[in-house]
């Protein structure tokens, strides 16, 4: 990768955002480390700043540019980077049709997992107090628990896709360490493998999990 | 496409399901018309039958198989089919990196649109009566309206991606016809173009929109 190409890449990101991290890990995996990046603060509302809105009309992070190409949705950015730099760094989408199908399948299912996780850990943040119900949160927890058991089964039956394109798992790595290893032993083992992956170590956001606010809700899962 | 290959494909589907339709349209676009398909009834709970669960542990439709490859998540199935049959039928992912980025971006954003649509039109179905709030539904409608305005803008500024990979729009085609053409003229025009697309005409589910139940909620959007 020439230095020039990397300089034509820029990423606006926020700490603790799985979509941002997904793109950063992919950049590491593709050995595109020289890009320009800028950390913005969600707390200060910097994701709604003019700088972001010019790239991303949704006012969300990541906001990613490569030359004239702007691609902000994180999975879309990962697909773009993998296709554009196929022969560089690690291949994240394998050639074999069967393996490819599995990677796409888990990549998309990973978004469902993230949604189900978010509806539990961000319940108080997303729902105004007067609209909250214990029964809603209880149901969301049950749905998340079922979802995690499904992934536990995936890891039991077909661990080969793991090393290839673990986009789907990166997005909830921060939660895995808070789950009971006893109930989800395969997920716990996978988490311990992911933690040691160079791309993940290199991009681990410094602020990530400095606060555990909101995660107590997972204790009884 | 040999008849033999098509015979190795099977699809379990449900009428009125945008994910099912997305896969069926892609099969049409790739000229894979000879596959085996079976219509199941959501009302009768057939999506939770053993036949489905063997292919799709989520008990959801579509359930799609191509030989030994099982890929059920609809966007994953579309990506798989496009990659596997790249030189057959219509190219749904263009070669140019810039166009490709745009197709991936809109494909993924289309899922957000679908989610926002579903949270309005299926509100009563998804939320038990004792947990419903007018304020929640009102906020969801505002979010949907903002989302649709965003797409209206996309159509204004960059209509070239439309013909290439309109997966993102197919998933809400049924709603476009119920929206006020006055407020969303670009979306209305796009809908009228999509309706005439051969792949869409060929796969239009017979039961689609025979009932308008739930769609009255969009009238005041």
Uncertain runs of chain A: none
For the termini of chain A, the CA-CA separation is 44 Å
Q: State Rg of chain A.
A: 18 Å
Strand content of chain A: 5-15%
3D shape of chain A: globular
CATH architecture of the largest domain in chain A: Up-down Bundle
Task: Report the top-level CATH class of the largest domain in chain A.
Answer: Mainly Alpha
DSSP helix fraction of chain A: 40-55%
Main structural class of chain A: alpha+beta
Count of separate structural domains of chain A: 2
Largest sheet of chain A, in brief, is:
4 strands, mixed
Number of helices of chain A: 11
Most residues in contact: chain pair: A-B, 34 and 34 residues
* Overall pLDDT confidence of chain A: 85
The CATH topology of the largest domain in chain A is given as Glutathione S-transferase Yfyf (Class Pi), Chain A, domain 2
Write down the secondary-structure element order of chain A: HEHEHEEHHHHHHHH
Tally the beta strands of chain A.
4
Q: Oligomer, anyone?
A: homodimer
Please list the strands of the largest sheet of chain A in the order they lie side by side. 2-1-3-4
Pfam families (chains A, B): GST_N_2 (PF13409)
Organism (chains A, B): Oryzias sinensis (Chinese medaka)
Domain GST N-terminal (chains A, B): 7-89
Protein name (chains A, B): Glutathione S-transferase rho
